[in-house]
Amino acid sequence: MTHHSERRYDDIIASAANPLIKHIRSLQRRRTRHQERAFVVEGFRAVEESLNAGVALQTVLIRDDIGQGRIDARLRQYPIRTANAEAFKAASDVDFPQGILAVAPMINLEDLDDWQGITSLVVIADGIRDPGNLGTLLRSASAAGSDFVVVADESVDPYNPKVVRAAMGAHFQLPVYEAGSDRLGPILDQIDQIVVADAAGDHLYDEVDYSRTTAIVVGGEAFGPLKEHQHPNLITVRIPLARNVESLNAGVAGSLLLFEAARHRRRSAAS
Question: Rounded to whole angstroms, how far apart are CA atoms 106 and 68?
Answer without folding.
Answer: 28
